[in-house]
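Ticket #685: bound-state structure for zinc ion.
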Amino acid sequence: MALKYDPINPKFPHMIHGGDYNPDQWQSYPEVLQEDIRLMKLAGINAPSVAIFSWMALEPHEGEYHWDWLDSTMDRLAKNGMYAVLATPSGAKPVWMADKYPEICRVRQDGQREPQRGRHNHCPTSPVYRSKCVEMNTHLAERYKDHPALLVWHVSNEYNGGPCHCELCLSAFRQWLKARYGTIENLNDCWWSRFWSHTFTDWEQINPVDESIHGMMLDWRRFRNEQMLDFYLTESAPLRKITPNVPITTNMMPYFDGLDYAAWAPHLDVLSLDVYPLWHNPAGNANIGASVAFQYDRFRAMKNGKPWMLMESAPSVTNWTPVAKHKRPGMHMLASMQAIAHGSDTVQYFQWRAGRGGSEKFHSAVVNHDGTEHTRIFRGVAEVGEVLKRMDGIVGTSVEPQVAVMFDVDNRWALEAAQGPRREHKDYEETALAHYRPFWDMGVPIDVIAHDHDLSQYKLLIAPMLYMVRQETADRIADFVRQGGTLVLTYWSGIVDEYDRCYMAFRPGPLADVVDIRDEDTDALYEGETNTMNLVDDDGLGLAENYTCSLYCDIIHTDDARVLGTYASDFYADTPALTVHKYGQGRAYYVAARFGADFHTDFARGLCQKLGIKPVLSAALPEGVTAQLRTDGETDYVFLGNYGDCPQEITLDGHYVDLVSDSSVTDTIHLSPYGAAVLVRTAKL
Ligand code: GLA
Ligand code: ZN
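RESOLUTION: The complex was predicted; output attached.
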């Protein structure tokens, strides 16, 4: 990986500030379109995202294209020194098209075709829709390829892997299976389909509606991911060809689990995210902030540290949530700086201007229905615009974490479908987050990675609940430890292969040698029940004498691993609950039970000290405050954020300039509740 990347588009080496802009909805309001430009300048907007759902405005009747409105939008932006993140319109299919070609609408599991409505609901296989998109995107690329405003392609909008059970999709699925399994016998074998007499004798019998065939439903999810990716590649092809130098992205939803974005990342020039944290909800802002950071660190790692785009964020409220609560003063700046702290080179919004009608008219916008700059939200956005202007030096910088948490979507799909050991509280994401959290609290840079991510840069790899582990993943993890890495593996790991078939071995299957554990089974506890781990050997980690565990307790044995903690009660009292095993040059810990935040905090702190993994700032951070780093190897940018409700004082180790307040700070800095600072520290004087 690198520490300094080119700007997203080298023709604009600055932070991008923009948002979804829908001039197509305002064509009969020319004064509004003029006013938009004045207001954008006031807010420091430099690259709005244009034409996202504009198919109807671009092609109101089949083959009849209307470019005038988009031409004048692009020209107006360019004339005023701005750029466009230009969209392709496939996110919403036009009514006439669904009317004429019903095959572009999805079919439900019960065989009913969905009526035309909403958006994000086209069939990903339909040759008609694919060719319409290619046609449209060819026109767009040809028309704007030399336009000075064209900065980035925003392909479609929030693709999802929602199922379509039409004949075209089912037949594509069967083809996909043929390519994967070769013979129907092999497929039956991999799906263990003798169970309940589910054996297939013909490919045509395969219909992905049976949740009891785990292998099939897992493949159905994988197929849908690949089919949607294939759709994206098809509609992007003309853009690639006609405008090879314009970066291509499509906006992703970090909390959405329908697609495995890690498989998409190599096919995008830059990743972009739509992020709508429900700030100020009862979970508390520090918990919310940590969970957002987890996602940011996941997407940054998908492209090995390359900066990404915050394509959408709310200027204040979202309106699709049960409660549309406003961002409190400070939170807009903090949330915007948080994205940059974790690698974004943009701050963009949904939406620039609130429409007069439709379901998003009450979603926050930079410009609300009053149409003026005289609102708290507008001022907040303009303040971010001012700060971004001071951040040219940060563009393209990155970070090289020494710690990674493995959080893998394919594993998640398999794990969540499994019936056992608990139906509820599998909590894969929450568990990965619990392991991640102490690093966020300490201000230690960390990546969140998929199962096939390169491990060579890390000193510490935490792989919680690695239920599905492919042999090759196990081999790479074993290599990582053999060569000196430290591994943390947990309960409910190494159980199935990539077809979701249990290994015929003690758990953790292909990783058993690395941890030197034989895991007989996992005991699931009812909510409210607990066990305790008593420490018997500290391993120099500074752990407490005991910790409470709950929900999952593996019953394990070991020959050569050192037992660090044992269960206090139940029929497995005195058997190991925490072990460490020397393997090659490295060490592998096995955490046999689900512990609380107290254990995670102490364990992570101990591991960092033992492995010489340093936080961004040397002084301890107050509760609710985190520190993140971006650097080009010469200049360090330290991002501080206070997610707590109280003011905090943070000890610094020298002299800095704060880009948020535009002032210098020495030795200590005070952050108000939801306060943010971006400190410039020169590493080499
Ligand atoms: C998504 C979509 C936008 C808009 C926002 C509202 O992220 O991409 O078009 O609907 O949500 O929050
Ligand atoms: Zn379909």
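RESOLUTION NOTES: DSSP finds 17 helices and 25 strands in the chain.
TICKET STATUS: resolved
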